[in-house]
Write a structure and sequence with these properties.
Elements (H helix, E strand, L loop, with lengths): L3 E4 L2 E4 L10 H5 L2 E9 L2 E2 L2 H14 L8 H14 L4 E9 L17 E8 L6 H5 L1 E7 L14 H13 L3 E6 L2 E5 L3 E5 L4 E4 L10 H12 L3 E4 L4 H6 L2 E6 L3 E8 L2 E2 L7 H15 L3
Parallel strand pairs: 7-8, 7-14, 11-12
Antiparallel strand pairs: 1-2, 1-6, 3-4, 3-5, 5-6, 8-9, 10-11, 10-13, 13-14, 14-15
Bound molecules: N-(5'-phosphopyridoxyl)-D-alanine (PDD).
Length: 284
């Protein structure tokens, strides 16, 4: 099937899509992106993703080219044209194409909009059964990690460290504390069953899945603590997991080669995954 992408107002086959080499996304990573899940052909939590897109764009002073309603229509149309049942929708907005100059381009330079879909088995991922191992790496990123910027070099290197270690994710560590995964939010469960994740700040991306999982955990009667946790504390944890639009809730069973607890997905991680999936599926 021909992959259809969306570029600056047009739907077209990916092979026919092109961008100017002077695009600032390409030259300066001067842009923002979003990734939302698709389940049963429907968008998951797309309003929250679009609100974060709007915030990210505002923080770097790119005017949002579309209303939330217009973005939603574009996402739905792209999902339909690519017949995506389960997978992801990717949105990228850059400051547009102009002669290379670090300062903002001349007024009137239009932002570049690129959207595409990816088909992915998020529900029946074999890793959800076994859990994943993670390795830790130093957090090399800039100081505005709350902005979902396309400047992802530190995360690319972190994920490659995971790939080379044969594991599923890299957790980034700063001053001895876990910040987050290379493309996910990090959680631990303490021996007395408290759910711990880092509080929102400029140090991490405000995960959309994180919000839903914290709410589901509270509704299930769990004690939630939004606070820093150290790598040492993570090693002592009863359970751990990551959350993201691309993995939902994924148990972590090993950190830097050391098993957590029984070395199997923990009951709370499994339960929160089930609850999240039930909600994401929406009413039948
Ligand atoms: N990444 N932290 C980072 C650094 C991320 O890149 C992501 C998501 C998350 C989780 O956010 P959310 O729950 O909103 O997906 C946390 C996406 C999936 C990506 O870059 O592909």
């Amino acid at each position: 099937m021909t992959r259809i992408v969306h570029v600056n107002g047009s739907f077209l086959p990916a092979a026919e899509a092109s961008l100017p080499i002077m695009d600032r996304g390409f030259l300066f990573a001067d842009g923002i992106y979003e990734v939302a899940a698709v389940l049963g052909g429907r968008l998951v939590d797309s309003d929250a993703h679009l609100a974060r897109l709007d915030r990210s764009l505002g923080e770097i002073r790119i005017a949002n080219p579309h209303s939330a309603a217009a973005w939603t229509a574009l996402m739905e149309e792209l999902v339909r044209r690519n017949a995506v049942e389960e997978g992801l929708v990717y949105i990228q907005v850059t400051r547009g194409a102009a002669e290379r100059d670090f300062g903002f381009p001349p007024a009137g330079t239009e932002p570049t909009v690129v959207m595409f879909t990816q088909t992915k088995n998020i529900l029946r991922s074999p890793q959800a059964e076994t859990g994943i191992a993670v390795v830790t790496v130093p957090d090399l990123r800039w100081k505005r990690r709350d902005i979902k910027s396309v400047a992802l070099l530190a995360q690319v290197l972190a994920k490659q460290a995971a790939v080379e270690a044969g594991v599923g994710e890299a957790w980034m560590v700063e001053d001895g504390f876990v910040t987050e995964g290379s493309s996910s939010t990090a959680f631990i469960v303490t021996a007395d069953r408290r759910l711990v994740t880092r509080p929102l700040s400029n140090a991490i991306l405000p995960g959309i899945t994180r919000v839903a999982v914290l709410r589901l955990a509270e509704e299930a009667g769990l004690t939630v603590e939004e606070r820093l946790f150290s790598l040492d504390e993570a090693h002592e944890a009863a359970e751990a997991f990551i959350t993201s639009a691309s993995s939902f809730v994924m148990p972590v069973v090993r950190i830097d080669g050391t098993p957590l607890g029984a070395g199997k997905p923990g009951p709370l991680a499994r339960r929160l995954r089930e609850l999240y999936i039930a909600e994401a599926r929406g009413p039948a």
